[in-house]
Amino acid sequence: MASPEGGNRAEFINTSSSKKGAKAGEEGEGGKAWIYWRRPEEWAAALEEWVERTGQKGTVLTLYEIIEGDASRREEFYGMDMELLQKSLGICVKRGKAQVFGSGGEGEGVKFF
């Protein structure tokens, strides 16, 4: 457990008690952890603010354009991990602020309302 810093803290929770002795990467072990400096909800708000500020409501944008495009080059989410972007956009969808189109990956599109 880490000590609080700025009101935030990191904590490791071991959930592999049922498979003692299993190697990392084996099925059921997980092998992946997300450590955020901003939660997906915060990234969703940043994306919504950017779309509003740049006048792109109603425009279909590809996920590639959002994280690698010239229009987002100076934004904090530029170069964001694709999986984190998809989680953040999922929150926008749940809030009724966006709709995602396509089958996945960088070619997927999103339209903000």
Automatic annotation (TrEMBL):
GO terms for molecular function: protein homodimerization activity; structural molecule activity. Residues 1-30 are annotated as: Disordered. One of its GO terms (biological process) is protein transport to vacuole involved in ubiquitin-dependent protein catabolic process via the multivesicular body sorting pathway. SUPFAM superfamilies: Winged helix' DNA-binding domain. Pfam families: ESCRT-II. GO terms for cellular component: ESCRT II complex. The keyword Protein transport applies. It comes from the Eukaryota. PANTHER family: VACUOLAR PROTEIN SORTING-ASSOCIATED PROTEIN VPS25, VACUOLAR PROTEIN-SORTING-ASSOCIATED PROTEIN 25. This is ESCRT-II complex subunit VPS25.
